[in-house]
Amino acid sequence: MVKPTLDNYWLSGFIDAEGCFRIKIEQDGNIKLVFELSQKEELVLKNIKELFPNLKGNLRHDLTRDIWILSFSQKESRKQLIKYLARFPLKSHKNVVYNKWLKAHRIMETRQEDWKIKIEKLSQDLNNWRNI
After folding, report:
1. Cα gap 130→73, rounded to integer Å
2. What is each CA distance from 36 to 28, 57, 89, 108, 117, in whole angstroms?
């Protein structure tokens, strides 16, 4: 297997196919912006995780679906991903979802007035878009 690199579109294409951008609003009101990749093969996700040395991602095996999931929500990890996707943008409909997630990230960064309400609205838009 050839190891992935951040110097081409390979990861962007993989995200288009297997990536998931979520806005998670927890019961206590905390907001998490989550990025996930899923794959049958653990090694693929381990190699992707190695591309981001500071990535504090969680790699777990979902036994019910028999897949591996790499997920993260930390600010610095999101920034690394955003930097990569600015250089190698998504090409599929996933770009619409990513842009809503990115907007939520920027709102969280600035913490402007009513920032939580704005992110909740984006979360609803993101979920409604997925159901189309």
Report:
1. 20
2. 22, 9, 17, 19, 24
Among candidate residues 81, 126, 76, 82, the one with its CA nearest the CA of residue 100: 126
Burial 30-42 (b: 16+ CB within 10 A, else e): ebebebbbebeee
pLDDT per position as a tens digit, 90-100 = 999 899 999 99
The CATH class for the domain spanning 10-130 reads: alpha beta
Question: Which pLDDT tens digit goes with each residue over 4-49?
Answer: 888 999 999 999 999 999 999 998 989 999 999 999 999 999 999 8
The pLDDT-based confidence of 130 (bands split at 50, 70, 90) is low
The full set of domain ranges for the chain reads 10-130
The rounded distance, in Å, linking the Cα atoms of 114 and 120 is: 10
φ, ψ for residue 92, nearest 5 deg: -100, -170
Give pTM, 2 decimals. 0.88
Q: Which residues pair with 33 in a beta bridge?
A: 23
User: Is the Cα dihedral 78, 84, 87, 93 positive or negative?
Assistant: negative
